Amino acid sequence: MTRVQRGANISISEGQLMEIARKCRIDIVEMVHKAGAGHPGGSLSAIDLIVGLYGTEFRFDAANPNWDDRDRFVMSKGHASPAVYSMLHHLGIITQSDIDSFRTLGSTCQGHVDMKWTDGVDFSAGSLGMGLSFGLGCAIAARMDSSERNIWVMIGDGETQEGQIWEAAMAADFHNAGNLNVIIDRNRIQNDDFMEVQMEIGDIGAKFQSFGWKVIEIDGHNMTEIVDAIKLANDDQNEPYAIVAHTVKGKGVSFMENNPAFHGKAPTDEELIIALEELS
Fold this sequence. Notes:
It is a single chain. By secondary structure, this protein is α/β, with parallel strands linked by helices. The chain is 40% helix and 10% strand. It has a five-stranded parallel β-sheet, sandwiched between helices. Helix 1 (14-35) packs antiparallel against helix 10 and helix 2 (40-54) crosses helix 3. The protein starts with 13 loop residues before the first helix and ends with a helix. Residues 1-10 have low confidence and may be disordered.
């Protein structure tokens, strides 16, 4: 997959995309286990969406990850870095050695995604809530440059508790940022517990719609729905799109699924064996 052209006849099948996602899930659990730390739950909930994006409409060049006219992917929930690194590893942008050194001092693969450390990363994450504003800036800059690049931002549903998200949503509509799209990983769990316990955000789609966005709601693990939604958002340059992807935190590993404990916890040696058996 190199330099995917927007509107091209994509030859990769949905079955192949799911197989890539399965391999990425293996990378994720192995990475976090080896480091003894990290965020597997939100990485596993997001990976189908990331694979669906990179495997279809996303414009990039794996041989030249800093190609100026590439699309941009802003991983605002930057603690889910293993999902990003697993995708970049599959594309050949980073190496097995890079992901093996995840969360070690001086590693290419830092705990949060950081564009200064990792080729193929377009945003340096930290405190939650900043990515959509950053993505809007990228979208406006692309338009000023007369560039065709699209900007894709992934945020967590817990992250929508941040007021800056809604400031950016309002500004995106005002600036007619039709080249900006956001994917919300709606897994219903945040750092400490289920969102309904911490602070439920309600109907996220309706909220984005009230700010002037087009909204699509999908099953975030159904590759057909993922691909169709991404294509629809990508092809319509008139308004910003919000894709609300209903997902399962820890998807693919039974003891991690819908388990708040694995928001930021590495599997033990015994748990890794179980996870790899389930993912094989």
